[in-house]
Design a protein that fits this description.
The chain has 374 residues and is an alpha/beta fold. The chain has 6 helices and 22 strands. The protein folds into 2 domains: 18-102, no CATH class; 143-368, 3-Layer(aba) Sandwich (Rossmann fold), CATH 3.40.50. A hairpin with a 4-residue loop joins strand 8 (104-106) and strand 9 (111-113). The longest helix is centred in the middle third of the chain and has 15 residues, at 162-176. It is elongated.
Length: 374
């Protein structure tokens, strides 16, 4: 289909009728006018063609592969040769290469022909290596990706690895879901972490085939996200774990000066000013994409920190209609953006669960007179 990464055709038809192509998983051979001769692809967990059957469910072709796509078995009961094989990509018999849209891959050498255009984002992975050398689990569909963003060490609480541990839970969820076929990236603000802790983070990511990068500034983060606008890999989900207030996602909270510093003008904190200077680009995000902010007051309206509302209805009305970081990020990225009104609660992380709303009231949180709401 025009504008999409190469893959198995949804239908083959006569060359003079290309507009007849319709979404589905079958095709009509190009050398016949009998449309009842339809074949269907049956794929494995990597999207590779295993069986091809005719309209009566008879097996017309069976393919099996070595880990990187080299054909181990290629059996036919039909004169038709279907070229869409490993990962559902087109196999060129003349060159022995698979075409993925951005690059060609050689299944015999397990290498790409061409440097990864985003190699600077993944310094620990070779620019010609296919799927982090783990082709049994991952594919590179030239499709979309998910990103987890982790704030600096949690200097405000006794569990300084709070944000790292929450990020690992989310990354594992991404890997286990169907979306694990997509590219998964981990961006970590390095402030406050020891060299030993950074090495542990790197080891964990490498063991799971997750690309990672340490960041220093919020502007760097926005540029990393926006880099997807130049790629076929659009962002489907972004999750951010850190401290925060209504005025910022504070990836460097307490890491400058006093341990409990509330100076939010630091370069590693994502603020309204940062987003106005370096906006999120909607072209970097997939249609229906989502950003989840697991920081305190990320959904609280700007300038309403510690505000006392007379009723819960008044608080909810203000939340819906007053500007916030959530609404600003949503307007720029044209995605769904979700955040907490009030505190975030990271205690579930110890049980392997994601943070949850922690209620209103307390430092930097709005509240309803005589009442806390979650």
């Amino acid at each position: 289909m025009p504008g999409t990464p190469p893959g198995p055709p949804v239908q083959w038809d006569k060359a003079e009728d290309p507009d007849d192509v319709q979404p589905g998983y079958g095709y009509v051979p190009a050398d016949t006018a009998h449309h009842e001769e339809i074949f269907f692809y049956h794929t494995d967990h990597l999207g590779s063609t295993s069986y091809i059957t005719d309209a009566k469910a008879n097996v017309a072709q069976f393919d099996a592969y070595l880990p990187y796509g080299e054909l181990l078995v290629d059996e036919h009961s039909s004169t038709e040769e279907m070229p869409y094989k490993f990962n559902g990509k087109e196999f060129d018999e003349e060159t022995g290469l698979y075409y993925y849209g951005a690059r060609y891959m050689n299944p015999k050498t397990s290498l790409w022909y061409g440097v990864d255009a985003l190699i600077e984002n993944y310094p620990t992975i070779g620019s010609y290596i296919y799927c982090s050398s783990n082709p049994v689990v991952f594919i590179d569909p030239d499709g979309n990706k998910k990103v987890v963003v982790t704030g600096g060490a949690d200097a405000h609480n006794k569990y300084e690895m709070n944000f790292v541990n929450a990020s690992k839970i989310q990354l594992d969820k991404y890997l286990k879901r169907a979306g694990s076929l997509e590219e998964i990236s981990w961006l970590i603000f390095g402030v406050g972490y020891s060299q030993e802790q950074k090495q542990e983070i790197a080891k964990w990511a490498n063991n799971r085939g997750v690309s990672f990068k340490f960041l220093d500034t919020a502007e760097q983060l926005v540029n990393e996200l926006n880099s997807s606008s130049q790629s076929n890999d659009k962002l489907t989900e972004v999750s951010m774990f850190s401290h925060g207030t209504a005025s910022n996602v504070s990836f460097g909270f307490g890491q400058h000066g006093d341990r409990n510093s509330t100076n939010y003008s630091n370069k590693d904190n994502l603020t309204e000013a940062t987003l106005n200077k370096t906006p999120l680009q909607s072209s970097a995000f997939a249609k229906g994409g989502r950003i989840d902010l697991y920081s305190c007051n990320s959904g609280t309206p700007l300038k309403y920190e510690e505000t006392e509302f007379k009723t819960e209805k008044e608080l909810r009305y203000t939340t819906r209609h007053a500007p916030s970081l959530v609404t600003l990020m949503g307007r720029q990225s044209k995605t769904i953006v979700r955040g907490f009104v009030g505190r975030s609660d990271y205690t579930p992380v110890a049980q392997g669960l994601l943070p949850k709303p922690g209620g209103t009231g307390g430092s930097y949180s709005p509240h309803v007179r005589g009442k806390n709401v979650s």
